[in-house]
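Quick check before the chapter quiz. The format below is the same one you will see on the exam, so make sure you can read both the input and the output lines.
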Amino acid sequence: MRDLQGIDCLLLKELKSCCAEEYNFLPRETGLNLMESTSPEVHSGVSAKCRDSRVEELWGLTSFFGYRTQTFVQAVNLLDRFLTNMKVQPKHVPCIGVCCLHIAAKMFEEDCNISSSHELIRISQSKFTVSDLSRMEKIILEKLCVEPKAVTALTFLHLYYSAVNSLSAGREEVPSIGRLEAQLKACLCRLVFSKAKPSVLALSLIAQEFEALQSAALLKIVQQFQRHLKIGDGELLHWKELVTKCMTEYRSSECTKPDNKKLVWILSRRTAQSLQTRHFSVPGLPTIPEMSWDESESEDSCEDMSCGEESPCGSLGSDGEGAFFPSTFLDRAE
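Here is the expected output.
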């Protein structure tokens, strides 16, 4: 404790309390090993690829609805805990994943920002119904200890970040919390990181960032946390190397990650017919003479060319960029 005297005692007390509780919210290791060993071609069990694909889609939905990082992290925690405690068929994973996100949103989002069940199903392009989602929600709540104060890697990331800012007192350049949260999201898309203790995973994320900055002062803070939480050198090194590898792969062009691809809008038949009718009803613009351009007419001509509504026959969904969607989500939507 002597090394961390510059940190608020309440923060240290909360850190110690979270370390004692983090084991209560870990997925079962036997279930994680089973998913890792399950082939994607096997339809009787959930594979790591199936799970990772679902988490990427949850990330896309989180971005689309503007949910907090806390909502996404909680949803992934619920998903992993449910998949490792229950025997689940792959065909049920989409409903379970969306349901976990809906439960997490109810915990952390403002009521006015929570998407309805119908909207969540529609945007996720799911085939199950609202009643299916409601039944699955009851099952998850019955089988899991669902608490708003669940201890996750994000919990420790925020505690570490507050402590680092307190100890550095602005003397060192510290990566933004948004950057660290984004890296945590990327890690959670890999099943292997569900095996890490939340306290170790969060410290590994911070450590690899501080090493990139080559800051001796910040790395010393990491060592102080490591001693305070009794994290072994080998354990921290193992997860730090996996985090670094994940970040390297995530930054590569081959990696599937959120991008700026446009949303593919799905129109009803009535709307499509309405757009087609409007297209044929648009009046044609007068032909502009090529050789009789008169400066006195230039202003009026420009007004004629710029007036009127935008043509409805343009590419659907080209009005703006969609939220960050993993490409797997977009491919399935198309």
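If your answer matched, good. The chain is about 60% helix and 0% strand.
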